[in-house]
Specification:
Number of strands of chain B: 38
Structural class of chain B: alpha/beta
Number of helices of chain A: 0
Shape of chain B: globular
Helix content of chain B: 25-40%
Largest interface: A-B, 38 and 32 residues
Strand order of the largest sheet of chain B: 3-2-1-7-19
Helix content of chain A: under 10%
Radius of gyration of chain B: 32 Å
Distance between the termini of chain B: 71 Å
CATH class of chain A: Mainly Beta
Largest sheet of chain B: 5 strands, parallel
Oligomer: heterodimer
CATH topology of chain A: Rieske Iron-sulfur Protein
Number of strands of chain A: 11
Structural class of chain A: mainly beta
CATH topology of the domain at 5-113 and 245-306 in chain B: FAD/NAD(P)-binding domain
Strand content of chain B: 15-25%
Bound molecules: siroheme, flavin-adenine dinucleotide, iron/sulfur cluster, FE2/S2 (inorganic) cluster
Strand order of the largest sheet of chain A: 1-11-10
CATH architecture of chain A: 3-layer Sandwich
Chain lengths: 108, 845
């Protein structure tokens, strides 16, 4: 497993919304929920819409579990597990992410 | 063909047509050739809604026959030809135009004609009746040069006719022979209250008046003289003094008729000749003629059945009615006059609120026999069910009409009704049929209307239909949950009110005070839209940004490959050649696919997220603004070229369209809003298919509301006619804000209207009569929105902070490598998956 890579500073995070980072050639969607004090990282690739768009989806929770809704066809994905809530067989990769001082770090 | 029998249907009115519709679906259909004679110049239309002709409905709108009905069902139609004689010996029917048909069976559906009392002078010009579209055309023509109109007859129809004259801007009088209005249906108390209400509408009522002569007037066209010596001058006399069955053709061929007219029928709807049936208003059953559609429809279905299976028979019908005049609630049920022996009466009268209610109950107080409601007919549907289904009354029957008490008890739960209970009498739809339709997945009022026909006639049953639906959904375990989503236990309208009352300015504040969790893709954009339409802040302010749908976040529409489209506003569709050149230059510079949209403007596709601010900088510099193609907000105001160039145009439609588009651009709403403005009734801008449509007339502008193209097209309703521009804009302001405040999320104006209790009339009363006392507020809110307009793109490109988001990667300037274009017809388009794989293999990306 590779080491932690610094992506950006915490100021670059969008509260209650997402951004996209390029990590080792991979597109990663990063979401920040300040109220929960949580940052999540999953694939930016939308397996249904077949486009790199998930970082631009709306986030929130379903039954308390944090989720993102695809901006193209509105499927929901659990931000912790990557699981698609509409289709058991589809799951996004999730990535370890942490905040270290003021930097956002990720491990792919 | 030759071994088939021939069925001749005489009369293609409401009942004759309903018969044809039922019969072509029956098993016996194939055994008959069908011929029908239609005396009127057009096939059956909805006579019940006849008055709507004055408020802009056309003959086509009112038509009952689907296009191609007669051809598709192989029915030989003789239009504009009256069946003149029946020869029962040789079994033939001969028409006025000389067509002779040999028949095996006949169905008479000749309806009735308006009775004109033989007063001297009744045949003068401008003495008219109210029965057919031609009659209404005559009234319209006469009203042009008239100031005063008088209706003879204060019954149900007479009052409807009076309202129509009033709406034609005539000083209107109703002259009634009896000592009260609606003498058949109401008692004295109800009649007196109704009189006050009718007079409040600005119509003068003259009771106990026996018209004895009509002659030349001194100031007006006619002078009506009454038996009591009084006189009334008027330009138009409209007779509405009752109807008489059209039984002459039956009488001439020797069929049995009643002493006071009407073709006698038995329970099978057969006349004295078993091969001849009679249905509708021409038929006399047990000495009664039913002057309403529902019993006629019932007879039509019975004869269709008689000709095939012979299982159904007629056993009488209910004569309860509800007056369909705007602003006057009147209903009468069953034995309103308490003529049943031993009947007990409860009455409630409130002069201050102009409400009168009366119940007639059986001597043992167990069953409802009749009722009269004036001023507040909300209880009509419930009371009618008590009557029709003989449901036991509550212990204190008066609780059904007393205020205060009535709230809890009048709501006879739909659960209490048996499955056989008739919910819609116009289309004979029972509770059982509705429940089946609900189980089949029709879970909205609109869907139920579509599939059962319930509530598509007089509309009297709409409240009951809704309550049956809600009750059934609850029972099926489909919670009738009107909450917007699990995060807020409120409807959109509740949330709107919370925002106004508590002056809430952000989603977080609302969530803290009234919600739970973190929100979702349903409540966030809905709240974002509410905040935007109320406060009109920039939608990309930090506190609102995370609420926006993807399209709003980037002020552009996301396409299938994650790129965006860019639509600058082109108000009214008007564009100078220089504008076109600037647009072309932008398209060229960024290599964008370019197309004209269905909304009369230019759309650029294939813009990468990071290019959006650059493209918009160029567009803003060239004088363009955001077109809000991404927002639930005003899209376009489509215009035709109008009087400036068009030889038919009567007003400047382009000028008005541009003015309207500039006024309402940026207004956030529950869904997108589209307008159209046409320069004349040829309607080249398709204004009647828009949320707001405006059509120029010789005298101003006609305003149409709540039309829709899209998935389920809906013709707009005519809201008001001949408006000056100032009034037009005031009405639009108020209608739009009322929509913004009260619609559900993602509800277009068409669906909003379809679901509005009271429909168009209610909307009119809110806006024109200020029924809720909120017009000033609505106006104020619109003024605020108009005054605080900003071009969202201009503000964005001027703000470093807002621009931060327009990068694909937060940590790299690279572009998304998955976005690949190929060329087609000289422009780019997104590569298909196989093309992309190919390009990748050949090392092009
Ligand atoms: C671009 C355009 C097609 C075109 O190339 O001509 C278009 C494109 C889209 N339409 Fe449309 N509609 C376009 C004119 C229309 C029209 C014609 C018109 O406006 O006169 C209609 C029928 C009229 C009407 O709305 O009443 C129309 C009825 C719809 C509907 C159905 C709405 C309904 O109430 O049934 C949808 C779906 C929706 O909104 O939920 C829709 C949705 C869409 C969406 C948002 C679909 C989507 O989610 O991607 C498309 C946005 C693409 C984009 O990036 O702009 N579009 N769409 C037209 C843009 C007009 C403009 O200048 O803004
Ligand atoms: C303004 C108005 C409002 C009304 N409102 C209501 C309401 O709210 N609720 C309600 O229940 N009812 C209402 N009615 C009554 C309702 O319209 C009638 O009950 C219904 O139209 C009766 O249908 P019908 O087919 O029997 O007669 P009609 O609809 O009159 O049809 C008879 C047709 O037969 C044609 N015809 C007659 N003789 C011949 C012949 N020899 N050959 C060929 N054709 C012939 C006539 O020209 C006519 O077209 C209203 C009526 C009017 C005028
Ligand atoms: S609607 Fe009338 S004015 Fe407008 S272009 Fe068509 S014909 Fe001309
Ligand atoms: S009762 Fe007339 S529409 Fe249902």
């Amino acid at each position: 497993m590779s080491n932690w890579t610094k992506i950006c500073s915490t100021d670059d995070l969008q509260p209650n919304s997402g951004i996209c980072a390029l990590v080792d050639g991979k597109q990663v969607a990063i979401f920040y929920m300040p109220k929960l004090g949580e940052v999540y990282a999953v694939d930016n690739w939308d397996p249904f819409g077949k486009a790199n768009v998930l970082s631009r989806g709306l986030i929130g929770d379903i039954g308390g579990a944090p989720m993102v809704a695809s901006p193209l066809y509105k499927q929901h994905f659990d931000l912790k597990s990557g699981q698609c809530l509409e289709d058991e067989e589809v799951k996004l990769n999730t990535y370890e992410i942490q905040i270290n001082n003021n930097s956002v770090e990720i491990r792919v | 063909m030759n071994n088939k029998q021939t069925l001749v249907v005489i009369g293609n009115g409401m009942v004759g047509h309903t018969f044809l519709e039922s019969f072509v679906k029956s098993e016996a259909r194939d055994q008959f050739n069908i011929v029908t004679f239609c005396e009127e110049p057009r096939v059956a239309y909805d006579r019940v809604q006849l008055s709507a002709f004055f408020s802009g409905k056309t003959a086509e709108d009112l038509s009952m026959a689907d296009e191609g009905f007669f051809e598709n069902n192989d029915i030989q139609l003789h239009l504009g030809d009256r069946a003149a004689t029946i020869d029962r010996e040789n079994k033939t029917v001969t028409s006025e135009k000389g067509v002779t048909i040999s028949y095996d069976k006949i169905v008479l559906a000749t309806g009735s004609y308006p009775f004109v009392p033989p007063v001297p002078g009744h045949e003068r010009d401008n003495c008219l009746v109210y029965r057919t579209i031609e009659d209404l055309e005559k009234i319209k023509a006469s009203a042009k040069d008239a100031k005063v109109g008088a209706v003879v007859g204060g019954g149900l129809l007479g009052l409807e006719a009076a309202k129509a004259l009033k709406d034609l801007n005539l000083e209107t009088h109703v002259v009634e022979f009896a000592p009260r209005l609606m003498a058949v249906q109401l008692d004295d108390g109800g009649g007196a209250m109704l009189r006050r209400k009718i007079e409040d509408l600005g119509v003068s009522v003259h009771l106990n008046k026996n018209t004895s002569n009509i002659s030349d007037g001194d100031d007006r066209f006619h002078k009506m003289s009454f038996a009591d010596g009084e006189e009334l001058e008027t330009d138009i006399v409209l007779f509405s003094a009752g109807i008489r069955p059209r039984d002459d053709i039956a009488r001439d061929c020797g069929l049995e008729t009643g002493p006071r007219g009407g073709i006698t029928i038995n329970n099978n709807c057969q006349t004295s000749d078993p091969d001849i049936y009679a249905i509708g208003e021409c038929a006399l059953w047990e000495g009664r003629i039913y002057g309403l559609v529902a019993p006629g429809f019932q007879m039509a279905r019975i004869v269709a059945d008689q000709l095939s299976k012979g299982e159904m028979s007629f056993t009488g019908a209910d004569m309860s009615t509800k007056l369909k005049l705007m602003g006057v609630d009147v209903a009468s049920i069953g034995d309103a006059q308490a003529q049943t022996e031993g009947a007990l009466v409860y009455a409630y009268q409130d002069d201050a609120e102009e409400i009168y209610k009366r119940l007639v109950v059986s001597p043992d107080k167990k069953k409802l026999l009749g009722a009269v409601l004036v001023g507040d007919a909300a209880g009509y549907a419930t009371l009618l069910q008590y009557k029709l289904n003989e449901i036991d009354l509550p212990e204190h029957p008066d609780s059904l009409i007393l205020p205060g008490r009535s709230d809890e008890s009048v709501g006879l739960g739909p659960d209490a009704l048996p499955a056989s209970a008739q919910i819609c009498s116009c289309y004979d739809v029972t509770k059982g049929q509705i429940c089946t339709a609900i189980e089949d997945g029709n879970t909205t009022v609109a869907a139920l209307k579509d599939c059962t026909g319930a509530s598509t006639g007089c509309g009297g049953c709409s409240a009951l239909l809704k309550s049956v639906l809600d009750c059934e959904l609850t029972k099926l375990g489909i919670e009738v949950n009107t909450d917007i989503c699990p995060h807020f236990p409120y409807t959109r309208q509740d949330i709107y009110n919370l925002v106004i009352v508590e002056q809430i300015k952000s989603f977080d504040e609302l969530l803290d005070k009234h919600g739970s969790g973190s929100g979702c893709e349903i409540c966030k954009p809905a709240v974002g839209s509410i905040l935007a339409s109320y406060w009109n802040d920039h939608i990309l302010e930090q506190s609102h940004l995370s609420l926006q749908d993807t399209n709003d976040t980037f002020l552009a529409n996301m396409q299938k490959d994650g790129t965006y489209s860019v639509v600058p506003r082109i108000a009214g569709g008007e564009l100078t050649p220089d504008d076109l050149i600037s647009l072309g230059q932008v398209g060229n510079k960024y290599n964008l696919y370019t197309k004209i949209t269905g909304g009369q403007r230019v759309d650029f596709f294939g813009a990468r997220m990071e290019e959006l601010p650059l493209i918009w900088k160029d567009l803003v510099d060239a004088g363009f603004e955001s077109g809000h193609a991404y927002g639930k907000s005003l899209r376009t105001v489509k215009s035709c070229v109008g009087s400036t160039w068009c030889r038919f145009g009567v007003d400047d439609s382009v000028g008005l369209a541009i003015e309207l588009e500039n006024r309402y651009k940026g207004l956030r709403a529950p869904h997108k809003i589209k307008f159209g403005v046409s320069g004349c009734t040829r309607e080249c801008a398709e204004a009647q298919g828009k949320d707001i449509g405006v059509i120029a007339t010789e005298n101003g502008w006609n305003l149409y509301v709540c039309g829709n193209g899209g998935m389920k097209p809906r013709h707009a309703d005519l809201f008001a006619t001949d408006l000056d521009k100032e009034t037009l804009i005031r009405y639009i302001d108020q209608i739009l804000i009322f929509y913004v405040r009260t619609a559900e999320r993602l509800q277009r104006t068409s669906v909003w209207m379809e679901n509005m209790e009271g429909g168009l009339d209610y909307l009119k009363s809110v806006i024109m009569d200020d029924r809720l006392g909120i017009c000033a507020q609505l106006e104020e809110q619109m003024t605020h929105v108009v005054d605080t307009y900003q071009c969202e793109w201009k503000t964005t490109i001027e703000d470093e902070n807002k621009l931060k988001r327009f990068r694909h990667f937060v940590n790299s300037d690279d572009a998304d490598t998955n976005v690949v274009f190929v060329q087609e017809r000289g422009q780019i388009r997104p590569a298909r998956e196989e093309e992309r794989t190919l390009a990748a293999a050949s090392g092009e990306i």
